[in-house]
Amino acid sequence: MAIQQKLSLMIPGPTPVPEKVLQALSKHPIGHRSKEFQDLVQSTTKNLQWLHQTQNDVLTITGSGTAAMEAGIINTLSRGDKVICGENGKFGERWVKVAKEFGLEVIKIDSEWGIPLDPEEFRKVLEEDKHKEIKAVILTHSETSTGVINDLETISSYIRKHNTALSIVDCVTSLGACNVPVDEWKLDIVASGSQKGYMIPPGLSFISMSQKAWEAAEKSNLPKFYLNLKSYKKSLQSNSNPYTPAVNLVFALDEALKMMREEGLDNIFRRHNKHKLAMSNAVKALNLKLFADEKYLSPSITAIKTEGMDAEEFRKTIKNNFDILLAGGQDHLKGKIFRVGHLGYVNDRDIITVVSAIGNTLLKMRKISAQQVGEALVVVSKYLEEK
Predict the structure, then answer these.
(1) What is this structure's pTM?
(2) Is 339 annotated as a binding residue?
């Protein structure tokens, strides 16, 4: 088998990396206690606040998005605290496990995979908590395992009305893809990861902390050392880091954030929404079915059912014939769905290419006609032309 030299990542992460970011990544390392690195931290911190639409502290951790989420939990809560966890996919399921691992009492609000969390269930549980025993609400904004986006704006409004509970939100695949106005929605803790909308390789995670979150941190008794956010906050005052950071990833981050600022938030959100619409409507034209309801599709990824064929074999065929990597289903969805990522550094050509590859493969399998492949590309063009 020939070595693949032009693999196209159409998965929810790692996502494609721009050439300018790769060049920044290849720079010779500098000392992480140097003035040059402090200037870099100052620049990236300012741009991270811009991306988060916040005046809050935004801290950078060398670790994955899971590290940022775990940090948010262990820095603000104490053993025995009661929390709500939203679960409607693989990542919501993970936060339930993390919360229980640290001895938290979990109230689970769930829905079937592919169905968004019901904000009214959160409202009901929070309103019934007359003694303010619930200390946090932990949930995933964009549930990558199913291609569903949860109604964070409404859920966060109910958390604010509770007045005691913190919001701890996994925005790993929504930040940099759709609007997450941290200050406007008064989100307390927001976690994200570098290999998603940030357009850089894996290895960094980011966490924004509100004043309310820092106040909660003063009471937290859960164990922490490397992920003790007080250390990160203190070192950030001198544009530094408490431990040795991934210096070259910070070079890449600086370049990626500059690219994002040049494109502008509204244009970034518009591009992701356009690609979501193009992909989801092409799926229907190709005689396939979406896994999630159209009203709740994530701008980052489209999950597609494969009734009558094995999704893993389909993905393998696409990779072997076109050098395009698609994501598979997780847990009980393995072999039943495949997922097309359109997050981060993805352009119109990528969408046209992946739809063509899927259509061509279905045509060879005699699942659809050549006319349907053409119609799907017409549909894609229609949505890509929209400004």
Answers:
(1) 0.96
(2) yes
